[in-house]
Amino acid sequence: MLKTLNGETLLYPIIGDPIRFVKSPQRLTAEFESRDHNGMCVPMLVPDGTLDCVLRGLGTIPNVRGLLITMPHKNTMFAYCATSSETSKLLGVVNVARRNGDGSWHGDMLDGVAFVAAQRKKGAKPEGARVLQIGAGGAGSAIGVALLRAGVRELVLHDANQSRLDDLVRLLSGLGRGRVLAGPPDPTGCDMVVNATPMGMSPEDLLPVSANLLTSSMFVGDVVAGHGATPFIQAAKAVGCKTADGVEMVEAGMELMPDFLLGK
Q1: Is 221 exposed, middle or buried (0-12, 13-18, 19+ CB in 10 A)?
Q2: Domain spanning 10-109 has what CATH number?
Q3: Are 196 and 223 in contact (CB under 8 A)?
Q4: Which of 6, 193, 261, 263 has the smallest number of CB atoms closer than 10 Å to its CB?
Q5: Active site residue: 74, 89, 237, 264, which one?
């Protein structure tokens, strides 16, 4: 518990649905305390379709100084940001927001850089790599940008939503960073394999990529956190792949979020 919890404590809610799996409240609050900042991250269950009402309420509370945004609000929240980072403007997505001086929101999308940082820490080498990424949603879009900026040679994208997939291929191709194309969920010939979908959150979920297509030379990354080692990560380890999971991505993000929220 925050030792200085009092009437001057600043609040940084994390909003989403589901919310029970998040670890950010404990970790971010501890980080604030280590920096002698009287702040606390609190979980808020905000169902889809209720964001407008929630933000109107939070906007009237001066000691709510920042937000962490998770599913399903990352796209919707962008429209409520008066200012935002270049990555957020490119993708129309945010996962963190802080107050501007006038009380409006400034948004950024840290999922991509956090994901790549976690991969590098565990031994991934994106420079010159051929990568298969499953998922073209909010987190997947940011990860795609970050991978290309990290020097990926070719990025193969797959998503069940064909329209969303086509849009992301066009968007990322415009960066001029590396070849971007749509393809099947087949990692043959790839150096890295990325699951940027919620697949693995439920026990009945299928694997994003067939386990028998993985080889020990591939680095496998997964965004799913809070559920232990996902079946996908387990399958990758079983064949000798190096891996980084969603918890490690969250930990990398925890190194980035406090600086953003405190305007460093």
Answers
A1: buried
A2: 3.40.50.10860
A3: yes
A4: 6
A5: 74
